[in-house]
Amino acid sequence: MSSMWQISVPGSTANLGSGFDSIGLGLSLYLKLTVSLQDRWEIIHLDDNGPKEFELEEHLLYVIAKKIADQYGKQLPACRVEMASELPLARGLGSSAAVIVAGIELANQVCDLGLTVQDKLDLSSQIEGHPDNATASVLGGLTISSMDENGVVDTFHVNDIEASFVVYVPDVELKTSEARSVLPEQFDRAYAVRASANANMLAASLMVRDYEHAGRYMEADLFHEPFRAQLIPQYKEIRASAKANGAFGTALSGAGPTMISIIPTAIEQNFVNAMKNQFPEHQIILTKADEHGVQVKFKRLLQK
Ligand SMILES: Nc1ncnc2c1ncn2[C@@H]1O[C@H](COP(=O)(O)OP(=O)(O)OP(=O)(O)O)[C@@H](O)[C@H]1O
Ligand SMILES: N[C@@H](CCO)C(=O)O
Fold first, then answer.
1. For ligand 1, what atom is nearest to the CA of residue 94?
2. Taking the CA of residue 31 as centre, how many other CA atoms within 13 Å lie in the half-sphere pointing to its CB?
3. Can you give the pLDDT at residue 303?
4. Do 192 and 144 belong to one domain?
5. 58 and 44 in one domain?
6. Which ipTM was obtained for this model?
7. Residues facing 147 on adjacent strands
8. What is the mean pLDDT of residues 100-114?
9. Which ligand is nearest to the CA of 55?
10. Same structural domain for residues 127 and 242?
11. 180 in the same domain as 123
């Protein structure tokens, strides 16, 4: 008998504008792993959304799985991993958080660690450094989170987000580390109060499912977008056209360069067609909130 695990992790969008480093939303775009045990490690990418060349010891999935196994005093067995991903690298769709959550789950399954959901929220957020994408990949849905100085995460989780989302993915990468390097180290008090008031309004609007209001506060970020906008292809044009075509609001997805609109479900097809006409250089994808977070299917196979 041999064992096989199928691990599915949703990608995510972080911030939704003013909810910087705190608000996340799982998207119905997935990273999927098929894992089995064999006598040597092997990671096979089934598409282009993975590193083109890599040393095993530097592959994020392996690094995380090994780190977690070590942390729990277990030996990580050699695995064959087939990886399929709908998340382009370094575009703002939470590819790194999804791989981190997948690596934690892989170690959890093959080393039988018995991790709780809270363990997964804490471990993944500590590794990412902020809980927005990580919590959304663990839980799906909308997550509003805070991580304390000991790395303990408190998350408010909301499902049934009845809106549609459209992402505009440009053909350029922007590493999160680079997009964070342009942010100011400090804000003065009056500025910080306005920025956090806008984040509070965004969170409240999302909680009561007032997406029109949420769209307004998605566009009112003061923590990061004013400093990142210059790095983003067609930032102003996409925001303006999306609004003209009926979007509630548009923001950077995570650290960018992808942008995301929240739109009424009733207009989705016309909206996407109009935006595709106006932004032919972008890959434009209609998506929804994922409702499940990380999922595992386990099979025992009869060996030939
Ligand atoms: N499928 C994958 N396999 C291996 N490594 C990956 C994979 N997906 C992402 N990574 C790693 O994560 C890095 C991208 O992380 P980064 O935080 O810059 O972008 P992101 O997570 O896509 O964006 P954001 O955090 O803004 O949503 C890649 O350079 C690579 O090292
Ligand atoms: N909150 C993070 C998301 C990307 O990891 C940022 O905007 O930098």
1. 27
2. 34
3. 67
4. no
5. yes
6. 0.96
7. 153
8. 98
9. 1
10. no
11. no
